């Protein structure tokens, strides 16, 4: 169980997350919804303590006491994170990137040498799971956008985590693949009792897979409940509750400012 | 340091490339090995400072110094001179003041207000002696003329020849060699004064060598008469010198209002 | 107009930024021009006058005279060994130093400042003095040469390594941290793969520099090709000088090509 | 009108696009559908000649003859491209990135100085259009994923193009924002007679906005027609037609390879 | 087992790659060890013996003797002017050269090779020779110093600039091309903003190097603080030597801090 106690996050003067307290229960599949800039990524990064907190406290069952270095490392090893921007090392192969998920299990010295055959096979199997076995030895910068995102997912699978945090894991995927990948993550979580927090943009997928939905808007939790409690109206409110978008509706035409077309 | 080393380390200064010097001085090496019953290692270095420091710390046994360098080194270390090159029966040499023929300089006094080139600050014949010759005529650097250090004897001659400096000072033997080689054209450069004789470059040794060894070394050098050994030194032989002979160099310091113990 | 009013704070901020940049540029330009003037770079007459001498001096270097080539073989080998040894030591020592002296990997700002300071200190000691110190310590020969090259190189190599580390893409580093890597693992598996090629560039540049660093070698009596060069220069054999320069250039180009081939193979 | 004549693209040995011929008509809003790795990005990059072609030819009305440098530049200036990975300069502000879209209109020398007030206002207005006016002076690496994508869109709007190529322009946006942004692009295209080719993952959005849908699978065009011609079955086929995904369905559980959990 | 069979080609490929890397590493290690052995680095006895001398020599440098500081002011100003002038010229000339000598911006591979070669050539001419040549051409003083520093610096500065350009993130460059920028605009607006801070790093490093390179300049008659340093060294005033070194370090640190402040302000 992950307990957030009054946590908040600031970037400079921007408050990205207003104080919030809630619990993430074990083997629960939680979906985060919210408009662009609402603070979804920030929220997720708090759960494995990757963001410095402005205030508040985070408790994780199994980790009592303070967050000293070693405890943090173990927590993060047990908490797989799928990033919105993939965060891969572009000049390494897909497999090398996936095997990075295994490093936390070994001593520093051991990781200077190639990992065991069993672990390499695990890495290959994770790539196969996301449909990328044939690209295992390609450099990541030779992969398409969606393929890169799937490598990021395979890296987390290789980590064999107790909790999965996923930041728009299917944003660059086509709907069929998106559904399959999400299904895969969901099944793994259910079978192994892994809890997951996944930010999504597709309300239909959120309702299909989520045990619980948390709605964020402008850094505040504006909805927290079960999928069937989320009404059409609330969805609309979730995405409307922003300061900037009032401009959108007006007109699609650009103002007629005279601009020289040729130098 | 070891007072009776099994290998004598002998340092030479280059006036040609290193390999050539070692080859040319093979005869000296053989001669010393036979005479002293020890192995002799020849070392060629370009820098007095490293020679002095090596000698002070017992990394060298014999070295061939410039007179001023010797005087400087002697203050800080336990070394003694024992032989100097003998040319035309004398163990002395001279420096010359030269001038560009189109500069209108005919005697030392004309140098007032002109640019004067010297070699290295720690050089005897391309700095100390010519400077003292000017000082005798009440010409002082910075006050009555502008001094420039150009690094080496040949560079002094070249700067005078191409007119960057109107006058300069350097060793007479080197000047003569340059003229002989045709690098310096007599129609462009002339000698305006020749110094009185100064003691030649001394061969020095560590004072903490075994007294018998010191004596053997001394006689070995003084008895050299094999032309093959002497040829690289352009000498007829080696004459004995003592520390006292270098008092003239020390006196120059006082003439130039330089405290040589602080110099 | 309300639209303009809405935009004007942004435009003003940008104009301000631009003006600030402009002021900096102007100040820089004035300083540089002042320095150039001080150094006599605007003395066109002197510059044009000097041109013929330059041409004649360079003319004296042609044609290169390779007659002595046999006597350059051993110095070349010596130089190669010494430069490789010195560079290798410098690189090995520099890697941990760089990690401590890079803002983003240093364990504490204090450590960062101490090690940056140490590197600055190492760089400000001229090779000449390094050479003298090591000759006094271990006598003449290749050994003091290698030591002087190594120590003098560390100051530059570690600084450049540290700067490469600072310019690294933070995203994969974050991913490594997030998967529970220890700090050392983050550095080795998240940062090094990204900076490896830049580090290789620096190491090769420094090797090349050390290959050419003739002063130290001459001073410590370790010989080497640079010493031959200075020797030929001193006795004013300019045709030999140009020949040796060509040999050095050829060697450097060769090893450069070889190492870039090596890098392509291993990557 | 853009005419593709038998174009194909290879990366090394991978054929990313098999030979294809088709026309993109003026003021048509074309949507590209296809699974991850199908070749959508590759196809789009061919339309403004950013990818070297393996074979074939591209004709654009208004550009007769060969593609020499200047013609290419004008074509690209008139063809705005929204990239899947945003392709922004991270250390510059959002506004600076947007104004990059204006560079093509000026001589090199002119662009060394700040652009005119009118153009800067245009840039700000484009940012306002995508709801990011308040972030105009933020460095791009301080923006959230969706915000970065919108900066990329604003850059293209600032370019005032005749054709817009968009590679998953709404992948990282929430559905409401996605719909608005797409609506914005659609309205601009319709009002100004701009033709657009947009790759999307949301079939519903594709059907809502597309005048024409092109379906890609494994580098081949497998569908080309109007939205209402695209049946459920065809959509399914589109995303099923891949070699690698047969693995997905099997089981969500990772194989039981024994892997050490702690070092 | 069929699963293993499916994975084995990948495992084999990785094992192969690892073996190849291992072979390269071993070969490199052997070469380096050979060079170190050749240079006498494994002669532990000699190294340990040297240690006391090292300590005593360094001891002689303390305490630094700043008594003569007044006579260092002018040389310091000279050096400052020479190094700033030389570096500025080098940087200005290097920018276009770097563009021509970077693989990703050079208009043609041939141009690339020609300019890389030119830069290699410039680097292989020692500063000493540059100094001698320019003194011969334009006479004594700061002018030959500035010219020698500038010419010698170009070889290194342009090489480093070119390498920064080669390591640039290609994505925004592509965006610039796609929006119809001309090649020059792509370079100035797509590449330069990305490499600016690295270029500034290189320029500042080179300035620092040139400031310290005044030793060489001092040797050929261009004056500066380096000449004072060599002077004190020659007459064995080691306490003065250490004082001058401290002054140089302080100057370099000062200007370094100033320029990093400047960079923060303008960015
Ligand atoms: N630079 C490259 N080098 C080698 N192969 C590449 C390169 N870029 C793309 N590919 C390969 O070409 C194929 C098509 O790639 P493309 O980027 O066009 O796919 P896509 O349809 O845009 O996919 P996505 O929806 O995942 O972005 C993929 O198999 C990809 O791995
Ligand atoms: N490093 C940073 N520095 C400053 N501000 C930041 C930084 N990262 C995010 N922000 C700001 O914090 C707010 C929340 O950002 P966050 O990345 O959490 O949004 P998000 O919900 O993930 O949006 P998206 O769906 O677009 O990815 C945004 O307004 C963003 O501009
Ligand atoms: Mg986000
Ligand atoms: Mg794509």
What does this entry look like structurally?
The complex is a heteropentamer, with two copies of chain A (263 residues), one copy of chain B (263 residues) and two copies of chain C (267 residues). By secondary structure, chain A is an alpha/beta fold. Chain A has a domain at 1-78 and 201-263: 3-Layer(aba) Sandwich (Rossmann fold). In chain A, 32% of the residues lie in helices and 22% in strands. In chain A, the strands form two sheets. Chain A has a six-stranded mixed beta sheet with strand order 5-6-7-3-8-9, sandwiched between helices. A three-stranded antiparallel beta sheet of chain A has the order 2-1-4, with helices on one face. In chain A, strand 6 (163-167), helix 6 (175-192) and strand 7 (195-199) form a beta-alpha-beta unit. The N and C termini of chain A lie far apart (62 Å). Helices cover 36% and strands 23% of the residues of chain B. Chain B is built from ten helices and 13 strands. In chain B, the strands form three sheets. Chain B has a six-stranded mixed beta sheet, sandwiched between helices. In chain B, strands 8-7-9-6-10 form a five-stranded mixed beta sheet. In chain B, helix 3 (48-56) runs parallel beside helix 4 (67-76) and helix 5 (124-136) packs across helix 10. The longest helix of chain B has 13 residues, at 124-136. Chain C has two domains: 3-60; 69-266, Orthogonal Bundle (MetI-like fold). The longest helix of chain C is centred in the N-terminal third of the chain and has 37 residues, at 2-38. Chain C is globular. The N and C termini of chain C lie far apart (59 Å). The mean pLDDT of chain C is 83. At the A-D interface, helix 4, helix 5, helix 6 and helix 8 of A face helix 4, helix 5, helix 6 and helix 8 of D. The complex binds adenosine-5'-triphosphate (2 copies) and magnesium ion (MG) (2 copies). One adenosine-5'-triphosphate sits between chains D (11-12, 14, 16, 34, 36-42, 84) and A (142-147, 172).
